[in-house]
């Protein structure tokens, strides 16, 4: 049963998410779907990978999202000579105290911007694995907890670009979603010239939410209801990637969890306390495609992972809706 407090919390969530969305869209022109996915990942406790060619606003999107929230932010410029200790931190011997002192690295922030993550070596990229999955860092046998909320927003250029290293499969699997910004429309690009032609739009951008607000919203998203048929539908979508003839590597069980959490966040942002199959369908591409590896034959046929996911969504039977019962003030609760 949905209580008044539950409905009030859901209203606060949608209101706060709307303020953050408007703040980001005031800088990122003409990309509402990209902004929506970024907010979905934030509220679902995930990490976001932004992949596209240079100059389309990948870093600007990450910095705008971070500045719209009053929280600690660290930016890491990934380069070929970047070391794992530059990210996680290092223990330094203090001669006066005669003991080792831990100096935290850039990963110790609530929002970490990893710029051009695939320009560092795979060894350095792997320094993020523990922090992204377990929200902690282990140095010299000692474990340090990371702040909450915690989100990594990484940008990368396509692997065809010079000087890039492909992300390891384990690294890609830890990102909840991948988005591409794409080129702006002519009208959006014209507005960009007017707005960005002088000072940076980030100079006047003010935070519209606090870190503790986001933490509360994350808790509210966890309580979004998911009916058994919808959970089974999410499992069917992910399972289909493991037997598809065009794929040599399907999505992991972690992908199933990420798709469900993202669907719950999307439902909450839409003002619902229950998940629809449409929520999972809309997020299947961004959540699943970057984890999949097409077969050699599929690559020769120029069949992309995104096309395979779309094919799976079209072929997987959708559960039929039937009311479970009326929830006072909230309409139909689930399936």
TrEMBL record:
<dbReference type="InterPro" id="IPR050764">
    <property type="entry name" value="CbbQ/NirQ/NorQ/GpvN"/>
</dbReference>
<dbReference type="InterPro" id="IPR027417">
    <property type="entry name" value="P-loop_NTPase"/>
</dbReference>
<dbReference type="InterPro" id="IPR011703">
    <property type="entry name" value="ATPase_AAA-3"/>
</dbReference>
<feature type="domain" description="ChlI/MoxR AAA lid">
    <location>
        <begin position="240"/>
        <end position="312"/>
    </location>
</feature>
<dbReference type="Pfam" id="PF07726">
    <property type="entry name" value="AAA_3"/>
</dbReference>
<dbReference type="Pfam" id="PF17863">
    <property type="entry name" value="AAA_lid_2"/>
</dbReference>
<dbReference type="InterPro" id="IPR041628">
    <property type="entry name" value="ChlI/MoxR_AAA_lid"/>
</dbReference>
<feature type="domain" description="ATPase AAA-3">
    <location>
        <begin position="47"/>
        <end position="176"/>
    </location>
</feature>
<protein>
    <submittedName>
        <fullName>AAA family ATPase</fullName>
    </submittedName>
</protein>
């Amino acid at each position: 049963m949905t209580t008044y407090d539950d409905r009030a919390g859901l209203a606060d969530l949608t209101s706060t998410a709307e303020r953050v969305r408007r703040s980001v869209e005031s800088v990122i022109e003409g990309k509402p779907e990209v902004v929506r996915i970024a907010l979905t990942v934030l509220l679902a406790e995930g990490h976001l990978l932004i992949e596209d060619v240079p100059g389309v606003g990948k870093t600007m999107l990450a910095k705008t999202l971070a500045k719209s929230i009053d929280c600690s932010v660290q930016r890491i410029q990934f380069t070929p000579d970047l070391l794992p200790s530059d990210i996680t931190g290092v223990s330094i011997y203090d001669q006066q105290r005669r003991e080792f002192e831990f100096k935290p690295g850039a990963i110790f922030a609530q929002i970490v911007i990893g710029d051009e993550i695939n320009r560092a070596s795979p060894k350095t990229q792997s320094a993020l694995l523990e922090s992204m999955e377990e929200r902690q860092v282990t140095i010299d046998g000692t474990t340090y907890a990371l702040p909450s909320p915690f989100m990594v927003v990484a940008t990368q250029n396509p692997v065809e670009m010079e000087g890039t290293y492909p992300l390891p499969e384990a690294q890609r699997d830890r990102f909840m979603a991948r988005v591409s910004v794409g080129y702006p429309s002519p009208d959006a690009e014209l507005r960009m010239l007017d707005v960005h032609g002088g000072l940076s739009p980030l100079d006047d951008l003010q935070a519209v939410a606090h870190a503790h607000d986001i933490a509360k919203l994350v808790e509210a998203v966890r309580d979004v209801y998911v009916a058994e048929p919808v959970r089974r539908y999410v499992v069917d979508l992910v399972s289909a990637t493991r037997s598809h003839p065009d794929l040599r590597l399907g999505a992991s069980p972690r992908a199933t969890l990420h798709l469900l959490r993202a669907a719950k966040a999307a439902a909450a942002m839409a003002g619902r306390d229950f998940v629809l199959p449409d929520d999972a369908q809309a997020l299947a591409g961004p959540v699943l495609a970057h984890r999949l590896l097409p077969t050699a034959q599929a690559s020769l046929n120029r069949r992309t992972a995104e096309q395979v996911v779309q094919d799976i969504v079209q072929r997987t039977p959708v559960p039929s809706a039937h009311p479970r019962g009326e929830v006072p003030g909230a309409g139909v609760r689930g399936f």
